[in-house]
Design brief:
Largest sheet of chain B: 9 strands, mixed
Number of strands of chain B: 35
Largest interface: A-B, 89 and 77 residues
Largest sheet of chain A: 7 strands, antiparallel
Oligomer: heterodimer
Structural class of chain B: alpha+beta
Distance between the termini of chain B: 47 Å
Shape of chain A: globular
Distance between the termini of chain A: 76 Å
Number of strands of chain A: 19
Helix content of chain B: 25-40%
Chain lengths: 553, 690
């Protein structure tokens, strides 16, 4: 019989484990180089039990990292067995199929020892700015061109840093010191986590984590099963079309709900393509699970108990299950479309409760100097989020990613660019009883009047906008052109001649419900604020708008 | 010397009178429609009860939450925003970030200025401060015309890169002032927050313009009313960064008053930390709904220039309006006496952030509240007593608290006793506060174990010792008069003002002459403000450089001598930065260039000396009683000696388990701790167990 003291202790310990991860993530965030890690929290940090199962992770963190890392630790321990590990050791890799899906993401795993025995592991992942290869572009024909890959290796042995690993990364990186610093940050943040973990074990006089592991997994499994049982059992299908590199890609899913579990079969998706927009299955599974969990179990923390209720499968060689050596740099183009695909399936089971499609993949705006001045500028251009049941979609806000944009002033200080404008694109939000979020229009050119190169690797949904739901209209598709008349129609690299600008319009989110049902005051406000034009209002919201005019007479 | 301080909150107005260091105070209900009325009424009452004429008061120091409340309740002026053409949606796009990864239904605050009042002007300044396109007079005239037609009361002007070159903002503001009726307020972004990052700066200037008409009218009415009653001294305003300024300056940038109440509380904590000679102090203020934590080093609170007001979604970070003004750096956690305990969907014990507040309050208040709260738990285990709670103002029904805990926590968790459930609630609340403190200390690069814990608020002294144990802290201070709070803190605040200069250049490339010019100009402006506030004492000037490795996320602050030659100052910064980085991280980053992000310049007068006199109490053990307090570890009751603070003599040492009671709070001296009373009246708890 478990004592009162133990019950309370388990409750407190769960909180403390999450706090350990938060401290670990904070240590990482404050010392990271990439703006993307710092500003957007493109990282994750977690505590794992002695079997390599995830117990807790920091609330900060992107789904692509968090949910892949849950599997990384076990895979890394398959390469270097636990019984060979000693205090002061740490493992590292950036293998896309073990880590987070592309070569930029490094995972560091550090065992925690107590009285000479491993009691658990701390793991952290973050995006390193550059590891050589082609850098940020979808142009590689294989992963070998995409950068240096470190197989699962010892980054530190019994407290002594393996400088060879750092030297290999630094030698191959365009920004050697930053790359080195980012990897050391991962190591330091895990050490911070281990100190805290051992403090907690000493405070509660624990010899191991098995008691708390069982408590966390049991509770999370039960709560997840209860939440999933609210969804009508059955198999639901959905599909979604992406522009692809230069030819359309189809994503298809069959999602089966039952017995407190969800199984996702991605077998119907297109084959992998010979350019870097393919997605390894670990990253696909991470985003698919995120979409399902954000809708159905948003308050249940991430751990083995909650994640194991969802399984994602696909035969090898598809665009969602690319195998080595397919190129994978811009794997988020496909990966970040999967939450919308999952929501499409679940909309059949939960009519009226699911948001419309969002703009999907982050538009990575990679612009570099192609004239006398060498520079690289990385920012994101965000589209609209789909309308939500009972609420309009958020404008210029990414979903599923939570990454925000770098401020214009900061971007212009960092690189010789001029942003001529950055404003909402009127009428881009899909019409509906609840309107999709608006996309935006950005015009950007060189401050030096020199040629530039633009990578279009992540400009997705240029051909068709995010779909509406329940009678809502689709959001406007994206559009990118150069002022000399060049229209971007694939994911290649484009030359922006001196004196010209790039004009990007990001996609708007889909709407929900019949536009005729839109609240008239909300429509009037949209028109007064210039978010919906008069002519679009007539076209899309005709009778509602008409009635309103009648009433105002 | 006779001084007064006035702290106007949403519910209460606190007034403290200081006659040569002797304090007396009054607390009355606020008068929200005309806040100056309660202030005047209260201070006249307090003065007459002490037989002190208003004429003899040298200084009145005032802090208020009016600006904050106006932003939260959206009661500010009809405001327009004139901005760079192509960028009028910056205010609404915000950082384009979802602040909660898994919540799909988040809502964002409405921008303070709606889109149709955000007016674009064709002008452009580039990142280096050069002019790409100057604004044309006809366009400015057209905008003035539209502003008149729309009958706006306030105008904010914010252009891209104005932190680097404010000339366009100045020109446009001047023309608009000339063209608009005199009652229309016009504010420039670079004057309010001279920093890079357009959204944060624009948000700050709009918030300032939005509250300025209301605040300047209020301050004028207060000043007039005081003068009419014969006051002839200086009226100073408490700033959120922990300094004082003049009414005129406060009316110009009222956004800087935003957190003045909490800043006063921290000022008091800082003052006490100096008094007891603690050079590293963590202040923990546990109130009815939240707990606030601030780190104080060498008697100075941590400050930052980031603050968020009027959060729109479950008080989550990121859901409010950013304001970039100097603020005492504080974190707030949803854990206080009224925080509600329960069991969540996962069958886990949870505490807060929802609070029963004071209406209806904890179940034991017997005012209709049904929720089990932290206060109910404290009563149930015996940490606090029902008799004399809150100085006898609230009559408690402890059995109602126990019943709430029994049904809402004990049963669902499967615990065997209500005391165990209550213990669990307290332990989890202590855990949450300790975790927040630990994470905040990491963010600031501090080691929390090296700090003393200074507690305040109704709950600080009850929770403090256990939180200290969790953090590895070995000394805790329970100050005298902790209940009077902010208003007392105002009295110990120096006249001070701070401005930031954004640089954002590689340190090696900074032009010493150019930067020196900007620093000297800022310094002149600041000194003018500080001297106007009639500071009698010596003025201290301080320069702080914010540096980072190029591309890196962590800014480190390095203090520098404002009187030294700028070239030498700049060349001395790099080695200091590298050393500090290495101390923090254990490694440095070789030859990555170091960037100078900003210089922050401040000036402050010496602290107003007004040490309150210590009281000498002789020990009187005759009132000692015993109380049984439940202990979860042993699942049994431990007997605590109970003494009133009044009877606890100077120099007497009491070993835990013991309880020291006083009207507004209870100090829990857990086993393994001892407590003594210092001559200045503060209780010092020391951890005796290893």
């Amino acid at each position: 019989m478990i004592s009162d003291h133990d019950i309370v202790a388990l409750n407190v310990l769960w909180n403390r484990l999450v706090s350990v991860c938060e401290e670990q993530a904070n240590a990482l965030m404050r010392s990271a180089f990439g703006a993307i890690v710092r500003e957007a929290g493109d990282l994750s940090a977690g505590v794992f039990d002695v079997h390599g199962d995830m117990l807790a992770q920091a609330v900060t963190g992107t789904p692509g990292h968090v949910n892949t890392m849950a599997a990384s630790v076990r895979m890394m321990l398959d390469h270097i067995p636990p019984d060979t590990l000693k205090p002061g050791d740490a493992l590292i890799t950036n293998d896309p199929w073990i880590g987070a899906g592309h070569v930029f993401d490094f995972v560091v795993v550090t065992p925690a020892f107590l009285d000479g025995r491993i009691v658990g592991y701390l793991a952290a992942t973050s995006h390193v700015v550059d590891v050589g290869g082609r850098g940020w572009s979808a142009e590689a024909r294989s992963v070998f061109e995409e950068g240096t890959i470190i197989p699962v290796s010892m980054l530190r042995r019994q407290g002594t840093l393996n400088d060879d690993i750092l030297a290999i990364v630094a030698t191959n990186s365009r920004v050697p010191h930053e790359a080195r610093g980012d990897i050391l940050s991962l190591l330091v943040s895990n050490d911070t986590g281990i100190d805290r973990l051992l403090d907690l074990m000493s405070e509660y006089d624990l010899k191991g984590l098995s008691g708390i592991s069982k408590f966390i997994f049991d509770r999370s499994e039960a709560a997840t099963a209860a939440a999933l049982s609210e969804v009508k059992a059955g198999t639901y299908s959905a599909s979604l079309n992406l522009d692809g590199y230069d030819a359309p890609i189809e994503l298809r899913a069959r999602l089966t709900v039952g017995d407190g579990r969800i199984e996702v079969d991605l077998a119907g998706c297109s084959d992998a393509v010979p350019r870097g927009i393919n997605c390894p299955l670990n990253y696909s599974a991470a985003y698919a699970a995120f979409g399902i969990r954000a809708l159905l179990t948003p308050t249940i923390p991430n751990n083995r108990g909650s994640l194991s209720a969802i399984s994602v499968s696909a035969p090898p060689g598809l665009v969602v299950s690319a195998e080595r050596p397919m190129p994978v740099t811009a794997r988020h183009v496909v990966g970040q479309a999967l939450p919308d695909l999952m929501l499409g399936c679940l909309a059949h089971a939960l009519p009226g409760k699911v948001l419309a499609e969002s703009s999907g993949a982050l538009w990575t705006m990679a612009i570099s100097g192609a004239g006398a001045t060498n520079f690289t500028s990385l920012n994101v251009a965000l589209g609209g989020m789909g309308a939500r049941p009972g609420q309009d979609g958020l404008s210029t806000t990414a979903f599923p990613s939570g990454v925000g944009a770098v401020p214009v002033e900061v971007a212009e200080v960092a690189a010789p660019l001029i942003y001529h404008s950055k404003e909402f694109a009127p009428d881009s939000g899909g019409g509906g009883q609840f309107r999709g979020g608006l996309g935006q229009r950005i015009a950007v050119g060189s401050r030096l009047n020199e040629d530039m190169t633009l990578s279009a690797a992540a400009f997705e949904r240029l051909k068709s906008g995010p779909a509406g739901r329940d009678g809502g209209a689709a959001g406007a598709p994206g559009h990118v052109e150069i002022t000399n008349g060049t229209v971007i129609n694939d994911k290649g690299n484009y030359r922006v001649p001196a004196g010209e600008s790039v004009i990007l319009q990001t996609p708007g989110g889909g709407g929900i419900g019949d536009p005729q049902l839109r609240d008239r005051a909300a429509l009037a406000t949209d028109i007064a604020q210039g978010l919906v034009t008069e002519s679009a209002a007539r076209r899309l919201y005709q009778s509602a708008h008409h009635q309103q005019e009648e009433n105002s007479k | 010397m006779v001084r007064l301080s006035v702290d106007i909150g949403g519910t209460f107005t606190d007034i403290v009178l200081d006659v040569d260091g002797e304090l007396s105070s009054i607390k009355i209900l606020s008068s929200p429609l005309a806040p100056e009325q309660a202030a005047i009424e209260g201070l006249l009452r307090l003065l007459s009860s002490r037989r002190v004429p208003l004429q003899s008061v040298r200084t009145i120091i005032h802090g208020t939450t009016l600006a904050t409340n106006a932003l939260i309740e959206r009661r500010g002026a009809k405001t327009a925003f004139v901005t760079t053409k192509g960028f009028r949606d910056v205010l609404e796009m915000r950082n384009e970030k979802r602040f909660e990864q898994y919540a799909l239904n988040i809502s964002l605050p409405e921008p303070l200025v709606p889109r149709d009042l955000r007016l674009p002007l064709d002008e452009r300044i580039l990142a280096d401060g050069s002019v790409m396109r100057a604004p044309c007079h006809r366009d400015i005239g057209d905008i003035a015309q539209r502003l008149r037609e729309r009958e706006v009361e306030a105008v904010a002007v914010g252009f891209l890169h104005s932190y680097r070159n404010p000339s366009h903002e100045a020109l446009v503001a001047e023309r608009l002032r000339a063209a608009l009726p005199p009652h229309v307020t016009v504010c420039q972004s670079a004057e309010v927050a001279n920093e890079i990052r357009e959204y944060d700066r624009f948000s700050t200037v709009c918030a300032n313009a939005y509250v300025r008409p209301l605040m300047s009218h209020y301050l004028e009415r207060l000043d007039n009313a005081l003068r009419e009653h014969g006051f002839s001294g200086a009226l100073l305003l408490m700033l959120s960064g922990g300094g004082l300024t003049t009414v005129q300056q406060a009316a110009k940038t009222p956004i800087r008053l935003i957190e003045s109440g909490p800043a006063g509380g921290v000022a008091l904590a800082a003052k006490i930390s100096r008094e007891i000679g603690s050079n590293r102090t963590m202040s923990l203020d546990i109130g009815g709904t939240t707990a606030k934590i601030c780190f104080i080093q060498d008697g100075k609170p941590q400050t930052s220039r980031r603050f968020e007001v009027a959060r729109a979604w479950r008080n989550v970070k990121g859901s409010g309006l950013p304001v970039r003004v100097p603020t005492v750096e504080m974190i707030e956690i949803g854990a206080g006496g009224g925080s509600i305990a329960g069991v969540d969907a996962l069958g886990r014990l949870s505490v807060g952030p929802q609070s029963a507040g004071s209406q209806p309050g904890p179940a034991a208040y017997n005012l209709g509240g049904e929720a089990a709260t932290i206060t109910d738990a404290q009563l149930t285990v015996g940490n606090i007593a029902a008799d004399g709670f809150a100085d006898g103002m609230i009559e408690l029904a402890p059995e109602r608290g126990a019943a709430a805990i029994s049904s809402q926590v004990k049963e669902p968790l499967g615990l065997s006793s209500v005391e165990a459930a209550a213990s669990g609630i307290i332990e989890l609340a202590d855990e949450a506060m300790a975790n927040a403190a630990r994470i905040h200390s990491i963010e600031l690069g501090l080691d929390v174990r090296e700090f003393d814990l200074l507690v305040s608020g109704g709950g600080g002294a009850v929770h403090g010792a256990r939180i200290a144990e969790k953090l590895g802290i070995r000394r805790m201070i329970v100050p005298m008069n902790a209940g009077v709070g902010s208003a007392v803190g105002f009295l110990y605040t120096p006249v001070a003002y701070e401005m930031a200069i954004s640089v954002m250049e590689p340190l090696a490339a900074v032009d010493p002459a150019g930067i020196n010019q900007r620093v000297q100009k800022a310094l002149l402006d600041i000194l003018a403000i500080v001297e106007k506030a009639g500071s009698a004492g010596q003025v201290t000037r301080k320069g702080v450089a914010e540096l980072r490795y190029s591309g890196h996320g962590l800014d480190l602050s390095i203090e520098f001598d404002l009187t030294a030659e700028m070239g030498r100052t700049l060349s001395g910064l790099a080695p200091k930065f590298t050393k500090k980085f290495k101390d923090l991280h254990g490694f440095s980053l070789g030859d990555i260039p170091i960037e100078l992000i900003a210089l922050s310049i401040s000036a402050s007068s010496n602290e107003s000396r007004s040490d309150h006199t210590g009281t000498t109490e002789s020990s009187d053990q005759s009132d000692e009683t015993m109380r049984a307090v439940y202990d979860l570890q042993g699942d049994a009751k431990t007997h605590y000696r109970v003494r009133s603070r009044r009877s606890f003599g100077n120099g007497e040492l009491l070993s835990g388990p013991a309880i020291v009671t006083e009207p507004q709070t209870t100090t829990l001296v857990r086993p393994g701790w001892s407590v003594t009373r210092q001559d200045n009246g503060h209780l010092i708890l020391e951890r005796t167990a290893s």
